[in-house]
Design brief:
It is built from 16 helices and six strands. It has a two-stranded antiparallel sheet with strand order 1-2. The chain has a two-stranded antiparallel sheet with strand order 3-4. It has a two-stranded antiparallel ribbon with strand order 5-6. Among the domains are: about 5-140, no CATH class; about 185-325, no CATH class. The longest helix has 20 residues, at about 50-70. The protein has about 425 residues and is mainly α. It binds a DNA duplex (20 and 20 nucleotides) through helix 2, helix 4 and helix 12. One of its GO terms (biological process) is DNA recombination. One of its GO terms (molecular function) is DNA binding. Keywords: DNA integration, DNA recombination, DNA-binding.
DNA sequence: TGACTTTCTACGGAAGCGGC
DNA sequence: GCCGCTTCCGTAGAAAGTCA
């Protein structure tokens, strides 16, 4: 057992203005310095009430207790890695003696507070091994089958005899609305009024970047993104199609990087860069200066494409398809999120097909995990992989993926280029 | 197309609850 | 009144929608 005491050493201290702050000790009454300092840091923030500090302290104490009981020891908190953290999340979801489980939101709250402590520690120079991305916490928790409690019973939807690894019953209409089928993606390309949006759709479909990340793509990159050069026809290095370009961008308050397929950049250079030059003229006529090199996407009128413009143009697709008599587009919606989701799903589908594992039970595959990680630009993705494997197997039975017959990047690019020619 | 409004939801903070 | 634990809730910021 670790030990947590509320002590009054800070009573009357003007910076804290509270009588009690939690202090952590190990079994031998050795001070756990970092968690204690975290508690002091929490207490020092003026808006936090004593209840908040108390709550955070208990969450951490409970976690340390578990570390002790599980044999890792609370002193070793810095050596705890993602696997052990996952084990703790599983533990949180276990039914108690009376058969009850804690609510999903409660468990999520616990997980986030522990994450808060670790990220505070890192910021303050206390190195540790827990490399978890904030976005992943929920996925990690969802992987635990015991936490079924967060399904709102008041929402009635068609439940299928299939459980996602998240523990939530598959909500059929909802899952379908999350994806753009490959055939729909291909059908959507010619429907765009402006080629720039077809290019954007293709980039998301292939690389799974978020719109905000994508809009940071440079026309001519500098520093870390120096690989991005707007090549004229015949100027590109011969191996560009086989290489990948390092693309670094700010994403959700962090710096992220992905390997951007050289082949994709090659296609952009061929199909769009000449247009970008024409549009830059319009921009220059209007403003007197050239558009910045940090901006790749300009629309027909020579304005930099914004998230809002992108969203609107994407959203138009289903209605445009309805008006065009020969359009093969069948989906109900068309958004960037759906393309991103499709990218991951089709990617996993292709990989499973190649390995002959379609329709089989999930088996963790480190190589595939690594590939998906690269694709999505995440640090760690294990539970996400599991999610997509199940999603793929779900849709295989629906014949939803049947239309994908070619390799991923090639098929998306050829669809784009065909449309362009 | 941009300014503005409405809706959604993730998150941190704090209240609630039962037992002593 | 304190404690251990769980759940609730207000809000900021993003997404989605509307209007001129």
């Amino acid at each position: 057992m670790s030990i947590m005491e509320f002590a009054n050493g800070l009573i009357g201290h003007p910076a804290y203005k509270r009588s009690r702050v939690a202090i952590f000790f190990d079994n031998d009454h050795g001070l756990l310095e970092e968690p204690t300092r975290w508690m002091m840091a929490v207490a020092k923030r003026k808006s936090r009430s004593i209840e908040t500090s108390r709550n955070y302290a208990h969450i951490l104490a409970r976690y340390f207790d578990w570390l002790d009981n599980a044999g890792y020891g609370c002193v070793a908190w810095q050596s705890i890695d993602e696997d052990i953290f996952d084990a703790y999340l599983v533990h949180l979801g276990q039914p108690r003696e009376d058969g009850s489980t804690i609510a999903y939101d409660t468990a999520l709250h616990y997980a986030y507070r522990i994450y808060d402590f670790y990220s505070w520690a890192k910021k303050n120079g206390y190195e540790h091994s827990l490399e978890v991305d904030r976005d992943e916490i929920e996925h990690r928790l969802d992987a635990n089958q015991h936490l079924l409690g967060h399904i709102k019973p008041s929402v009635s939807v068609e439940k299928l005899n299939f459980n996602l690894p998240t523990g939530r019953p598959a909500l059929h209409h909802r899952e379908l609305d999350r994806l753009v089928a490959q055939s729909d993606y291909e059908a959507a390309l010619p429907l765009f009024d402006d080629l720039v949006y077809a290019i954007i759709a293709t980039i998301i479909r292939i690389t799974a970047v978020r719109p905000k990340d994508l809009l940071q793509l440079p026309y001519r990159g500098k520093a870390v993104n120096v690989d991005f050069v707007p090549y004229d026809e015949g100027e590109a290095p011969p191996d560009l199609g086989r290489r990948s370009l390092h693309y670094e961008f700010a994403s959700k308050g962090k710096v992220r990087s992905i390997e951007f397929p050289g082949k994709l950049w090659q296609a952009i250079c061929a199909a769009y860069i000449p247009l970008r030059r024409q549009r830059a003229e319009l921009y220059r006529d209007r403003t007197g200066i050239s558009p910045p090199n940090s901006v790749l996407f300009l629309n027909e009128a020579g304005y930099a494409v914004t998230y809002q413009m992108l969203y609107r143009e994407f959203a138009k697709i289903p209605s445009l398809a309805a008006k065009a008599l020969d359009a093969k587009f069948k989906g109900r919606r068309f958004t960037a999120c759906m393309l991103r989701h499709s990218c991951a799903t089709y990617f996993v589908y292709e990989a499973l097909k190649q390995k002959g594992r379609l329709g089989q039970h999930f088996v963790y595959d480190a190589a595939l995990d690594e590939e998906l990680r690269k694709l999505m630009g995440h640090n760690d993705i294990k539970t996400t992989l599991e999610y997509y494997v199940h999603l793929v197997n779900r849709f295989v039975h629906d014949d939803l993926l049947v239309d994908l017959k070619r390799a991923q990047v090639d098929s998306c690019l050829s669809a784009l280029l065909e449309h362009h020619d």
